[in-house]
Amino acid sequence: MRTSEAQVSRGFDRTVEANALFAEVVRQPSLWVMEVQLKPIRMVWLDTKDPVTGEVKPTEVWYMVWRAINRPLPPGRTDDSQAVNTLDPLPGPMQFIPQFTLVTYDSKDSEVPSQIIVDSVLPMAVKKIEQLERRTSSTLLNTVSAVQDVPSIVEPDSDDQPWIYGVATWTGVDPTTDFFKVILQGFSNGYENRSDDPENPELWRKVIIQEFYRPGDEFDPSIVEFQYVGQPMWTYQPDSKQPAANAQ
Fold first, then answer.
1. Are 65 and 39 in contact, with CB atoms under 8 Å apart?
2. CB of 116 within 8 A of CB of 248?
3. pLDDT higher at 116 or 195
4. Is residue 172 classed as helix, strand or coil in its secondary structure?
5. What b/e sequence results for 142-163 when a residue is b if at least 16 CB atoms lie within 10 Å of its CB, and e otherwise?
6. Quick one: pLDDT at residue 91?
């Protein structure tokens, strides 16, 4: 490892607080929002075997380590001027189902997607990442093993802070990529219906977006190339159960 790479901070250096507007809490009484902390995007090389030829070759894996915890939100309240919706009881415990989508684009101004890549489950890569990250106390979960009932709310000043630790991994990212963003889904159940037609709802989901810049060399990639662009932010985006046509 290069000296410059060894000096890269290994701490969680981006925090997304569990924020919600008062209107969100009133509109959705069952709303939950997690606090999420991120480490920078990094890369690791993994030897993979071609299923057809049997040839073993190194594969570049991009990864991002994260941790999350459920935090309290301010209570919503209603008065006589606010509509109160009668909600059916939930069929069971709400689920925490994280998903990470990496979107590359050529122009920072237009952000027209070049690639849309949903994270992959790569057990061998996770083992190698745990070694690089010097994980000793807990295992890094992938987006399948992280699925669970939404954990109990934990106050920020509690002595016990049961973080969920995980890692997102992607392969097949264009090595010439300069600009990209990561969309974190599943860290809140927040949603909005932006349609006035009750027969055709238009659901938007509450997600986190973090943008990145990578002024690197495709022939000599390095983890120090990955740079944050701004701070991570909560926003809403259209709900889509089907990947885009150019998704990998």
1. yes
2. yes
3. 116
4. coil
5. bbeebeeebeeebeeeeeeeeb
6. 54
